[in-house]
Design goal:
By secondary structure, the chain is an alpha+beta fold. Among the domains are: about 35-50 and about 275-350, Beta Barrel (conserved putative lor/sdh protein from methanococcus maripaludis s2 fold); about 55-65 and about 195-270, Efflux pump adaptor protein, beta barrel domain (Elongation Factor Tu (Ef-tu), domain 3); about 100-160, Orthogonal Bundle (Helix Hairpins), CATH 1.10.287. Helices cover about 25% and strands about 40% of the residues.
Length: about 350
């Protein structure tokens, strides 16, 4: 009797032991699978017609900016404005000491009066046959030369002052009272800021120049207003390249809205040409190992368990999307969530959420 009980107990113990071993081995295998596979999420590749933007930068200026100067040289007597001051058209801005200039006007005026008297005397002598026609002609020439010299002197006297040629603001004062200035040297720079005619001057390489057209829409940003995007249009495109930079100059007219702008502010410009290009786009989080315009994305293989790394060329980034110039021509989905943990030898588990 005891022999039968002992055998039954032994059989029961072996059965329990095998059951225990089986239950421990299965989780171990399952754990191995979970640890080697990476959970990922797939996102469809979008295809559409997009306007490939052109990015450039430049300095903000006004449409009408004037560099004013004295026509004649002399000593600066008075400057009536300061930098940042608003001015109106015709307002007196600066003047020279007129001592020397007035003396020159008096000198040529006296010479004009003398030649006039000589001419009148020669006309009387010619009537009395006391002078020749040639002598009278010489007197007439001398009078005409003196008259032109007087006109030049009075004209220069008039432009020994600087007056505003438009409504605007003084953005630069380059001279001070008491300085000796030469003819034509820049003295004051004023712009038409009061008219809100703001623009950005930019340079375009030839590959971008051929794509830009007058009236193309523009978005402009500046560090002065980091959270504001200004709207504008392309207003001028030069047909010749700059001899120094090799770039084609263009001007972008900007609407400041209620914001206050100033000449010299650095601006970033994004031109949106009307011509559209067929591009693919993927979420930025799908990109891995990017360098400049080149990057990679992970794509699931047909077995949906392994991956491959596909190269792409980035056209531009906007919001949370990456627009591609090339790559993914035969791909409909890319891996987004989980792509940072993948290698080309990884296995994956696709999340359906």
């Amino acid at each position: 009797m005891s022999y039968k009980l002992h055998a039954a107990f032994l059989a029961l113990s072996v059965g329990l032991l095998l059951t225990a071993c089986g239950t421990k081995e299965q989780p171990a295998q399952q754990s191995l699978i979970d640890e080697s596979a990476v959970a990922v999420k797939l996102t469809p590749v979008q295809v559409g017609e997009y306007s490939l933007p052109i990015v450039s930068s430049g300095l903000i200026a006004t449409e009408n900016e004037s560099r004013l100067s004295f026509k004649v040289g002399g000593i600066v007597s008075k400057i009536y404005v300061k930098e940042g001051q608003s001015v109106t058209k015709g307002q007196l801005l600066a003047s020279l000491d007129l001592t020397e200039i007035n003396a020159q006007v008096s000198q040529v005026k006296n010479n004009l009066d003398k030649t006039k008297r000589d001419l009148e005397r020669g006309q009387r002598l010619l009537k009395d046959s006391a002078a020749t026609v040639e002598q009278l002609q010489n007197l007439q020439t001398a009078f005409q030369v003196a008259d032109e010299a007087y006109r030049i002197a009075t004209f220069n006297q008039q432009y020994a002052t600087i007056r505003a040629n438009q409504n605007g603001k003084v953005i630069r004062k380059l001279i001070n009272e008491g300085e000796l200035v030469s003819p034509g040297a820049q003295a004051l720079i004023i712009n038409a800021a009061a008219q809100n005619n703001w623009l950005v001057k930019i340079g375009l390489p030839d590959v971008d120049w051929v794509r830009v057209k007058l009236g193309d829409r523009v978005k402009m940003t500046t560090d002065a207003y980091p959270s504001t995007s200004f709207e504008g249009v392309v207003s001028t495109i030069n047909e010749g390249a700059d001899v120094i930079s090799g770039l084609y100059q263009a001007e972008v007219k900007v609407d400041p809205g209620t914001k206050k702008l100033a000449s010299g502010l650095f601006a970033k410009v994004q031109i949106l040409p009307n011509d559209k290009t067929k591009l693919r786009s993927v979420p930025i989080e799908a990109l891995v190992e990017g360098a400049g315009k080149q990057a990679y994305v992970f794509v699931p293989q047909p077995d949906q368990k392994t991956v491959r790394k596909a190269p792409v060329t980035i056209a531009y980034l906007e919001s949370k999307q990456a627009f591609l110039l090339s790559g993914l021509e035969d791909v409909t989905e890319v891996i987004t969530a989980g792509s940072a943990f993948l290698t080309e030898n990884s296995t994956i588990i696709i999340s359906k959420k």
